[in-house]
Amino acid sequence: MSFRGKDVLCIMDFTRNDLERLFRIASSKFEGDELRGRVIAMAFFEPSTRTRLSFETATLRLGGGYIGFDAVQATSVAKGESFSDTIRMLDAYADAIVVRHSLEGAAKLAAELADSPVINAGDGSKRHPTQAMIDLYTIWKEKRGIDNLTYGVLGDLRYGRAAGSFLRALNIYSPKKVYLIAPESLRPREELLDSLKMSWEFADLSEVLPELDVLYVTRIQKERFPDPAEYERVKGSYRIDASLLRDAKSSMIILHPLPRVDEIALDVDSTPHALYFKQAANGIPLRMALLREVVP
Amino acid sequence: MNAEDKLVVRRISNGTVIDHIPAGRALRVLGILGITGDEGYTVALVMNVHSGKLGKKDIVKVEGRELSKEEVDKIALVAPTATINIVRDYEVVEKRRVELPGMIEGIVRCVNPKCVTNAPREAAKPRFRVISREPLKLVCEYCSEYLSEDEIIAQLAGS
Ligand SMILES: [Zn+2]
């Protein structure tokens, strides 16, 4: 199915075939000027240098141009204007709109208001579909498939939008098993757990590590804990270092949406498990493939 | 109306009879209609009477008051089995079944403070999909947050 002109709001809107096609295009090392003469609006209402630069680079590499603003400029661009009105304005200027916003559902609202396709670059704490595509693409490339693997998803599974999107994304495939590794207060919301179709359970990292094929790590932020003592007590259980990895399969890969702080020790970087820099680099070809397919 | 109802409360001359309310929910229905007793309407409330269909049911009769479509839609959320009879001159002139649609728009708010539908001045109207009817459970179309029956009742009674 073609997704020309289609909005990219939630990873669950995509089928295996859609994603397979994207992954093939992304891995074909294509170059082109499919976006020549096209203008992409980068509407970043919330700070995210990494995601913004990645979308801008992908646009430029396809010969396109972009307009837009970051979170600091957004306040002055808007001058009290509502999000809805800013989106209507950008819709008149651009061929597609990339949206990042702190409110949940902002991208969906933008898609309802705009005729141009809207790409969700992260809204609220639940959805970040292009990150999920990059995560899946990285696994697809490294493991030659996404099904029948055992996954550990570690960190903030409640407020972290990358982890939530990744879990939703796994729904599209048939993992052998998914272990959710998180402190009790950061476990996924009921509605996310209800939506998981695969076999999953809560687990401690040390118990399941030897089984894992993929370990997806996200940051646990101190601010999420009402009691700082609780954070100090649990943080050690969610930190990965090289000595811990002696118990892991040699083929196990570690993913992280980046930026990391100290949840993955530097001594992991030089191990064959560390895939997170490759994963970040995969963001460009994947977003190029997506823009090529979506922008009318 | 069966004979037993007539025994419990006399017929009204003009107004609305809300029948087949699930037992115990008549007060919630009054709450939704904003009827506190201070408005001066003659109101009859019957709770936990025998009903062939429901086992037990509640009935609310309000003299001199007909319901708007919005009120009927709200009643559907807490009393999906209810029937609404409009009475004029002691005759039922209109009989309506309430209907719980698959999609609920604009009647209740999302409980997620970070949901775009709660942002002031934005064009998003709260919209929910019904994912369970008994007990009632809605999911926000924008942020996927659940809205439970208790939350819905609390909102409707408060508004
Ligand atoms: Zn919501």
How would you characterize this protein structure?
The complex is a heterodimer of chains A (296) and B (159). Chain A is α/β, with parallel strands linked by helices. Chain A has two domains: 31-124, Rossmann fold (3-Layer(aba) Sandwich); 129-281, Aspartate/ornithine carbamoyltransferase (Rossmann fold, 3-Layer(aba) Sandwich). Chain A has helices at 16-27, 49-61, 71-78, 83-93, 106-113, 129-143, 161-170, 190-195, 205-208, 228-234, 276-281, 283-294; strands spanning 39-44, 65-69, 96-101, 118-123, 150-154, 177-181, 200-202, 214-217, 253-255. In chain A, the strands form two sheets. Chain A has a five-stranded parallel β-sheet, with no helix packed on it. A four-stranded parallel β-sheet of chain A has the order 2-1-3-4, sandwiched between helices. Chain A starts with 15 loop residues before the first helix and ends with a helix. The mean pLDDT of chain A is 94. Chain B has two domains: 3-97, Alpha-Beta Plaits (2-Layer Sandwich), CATH 3.30.70; 103-157, Roll (SH3 type barrels). Chain B has helices spanning 3-8, 26-33, 69-78, 149-158, and strands spanning 15-22, 43-51, 55-63, 83-88, 91-97, 103-105, 127-133, 136-140, 146-148. The longest helix of chain B is centred in the middle third of the chain and has 10 residues, at 69-78. The interface between A and B is medium-sized, with 21 and 18 residues.
